[in-house]
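A quick aside before the break. I want you to see a complete sequence-to-structure record at least once, exactly as it would be stored in a machine-readable document. Don't worry about memorizing anything.
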Amino acid sequence: MKRFSIYLLSLMLSGVFFVACDDDDSIDKLTFDKNSVEVFVGAETVVKVRGGEAPYKATPVDETVVKATVDGGDITIKGVKEGNTTVKVTDKNGLEGTIAVAVKVDPFEDEKEDPTARIKWDTYTKVEGKDAGTFMLTKAEDKTVTFSWINEEEDESLVLTFKDTEDKIGGEGEEEESASVKAEDTTPVGKLTVTVDGESTEYDVTSWRLVQAKPADDEEGTPYTYWIAFTANDKLGLAVAPLTVETE
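That is the input. The structure line, written in tokens, reads:
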């Protein structure tokens, strides 16, 4: 019985030892809300530090690819040129952590100078002035954004819907985003409905981002036009239009 008690005590002490080791491992390095990020050339993204003690220091391994600045526990990473690198972050006490960064060229960079209302996705391209029909971009009170193109006969259409919970669309001032709004568990963030000859097909929208927002010209009172990139059925798309109505 005495040997059995000693054996149990040894097991309990071992458990405490392993738990203590696990706890030590968790504080041996800094962690972040995102361990890896993608950013476009000229755009920025923010990574939040978890743990450690300020002040923090962020040092890119390759400063020709990215620049990094620190504000409290926020690490702002800006893409400089296409490539891959890491950013090393250290805290006041020397704890370290690394963020993997991939910098890419925005596939819609060449679209930014053209404010013409349009939608492009897969094999579909509808452009105002070339294709008859109605182009509209609206945002409802529940923050549902809808971009639609509908032909005059109303038997052909492209309708994109998604939630804009952060109010990126409809706000004031020029906006440009570097990251997509997407669910990590692949839950759809919206829908794309394509109707041809009266037959409709729905596709899940897995991500979207605001490419940019600005007036189409310099005239006072010109509404903002929004360039919205999205991914549906693993294919990139772009919708461009002014916010015509905020429905209630």
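Two observations worth writing down. Residues 11-26, 178-184 have pLDDT under 50 and may be disordered. The chain has two domains: 31-104, 109-242. We'll return to this after the break.
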